[in-house]
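Entry 12.
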Amino acid sequence: MMTLYGMSASGHSYKVKLMLEQEGIAYRWVEVDIRNGDSRTPEFLAKNPCGKVPVLEIAPGEYLYESNAILTFLARGTHYWPDPAFPHAKVMEWMFFEQSSHMPYLAPARFINKFLGADDARRAELPTLLEKGYKALDIMERQLEKSLYLVNSHYSIADNALFAYTHIAHEGGFDMSRYPAIHAWIERVTQTPGFVAM
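Predicted 3D structure (tokens):
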């Protein structure tokens, strides 16, 4: 049985948990609280030298980290990652977009807004994070006005990757009422087989 080392409040950990549930793969969950230093112990660093979650233990002593790498591993040979070359590449395009243009703004905005105090110095970062995050959400909205999911009409790991932090973007201070197509997409994702809430 696989073991998923993750943190319940982490969108990255949630991505992997969601995919395991949607594929019906048996796994064991181990909570790792990075705020308490759980990911900086020698034992954990032997699993992931970056000291981050999630980490998926595929077999004894075989560890995979970076959430999108884990998603591609789990989705190989399934309908969650289509085989034809072009849609296959489009899925990857959205997953790279998530890492470069989406998550770097939505995730820290949520962290600052939800977990840090009102007088924390990092709150000064919020205007820039919101500005750049809205640009990413605008791009998603335009795509989802044209298709049910990010790549054509089928749910894929691209949707999984973007769903994690998009569906909780309001916790970072984003006004999601501006995005009716994203709202409808979020509802569709929650109806996919095996869906579990964060």
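Annotation: Residues 7 and 33 are 6 Å apart (CA to CA). DSSP finds seven helices and four strands in the chain.
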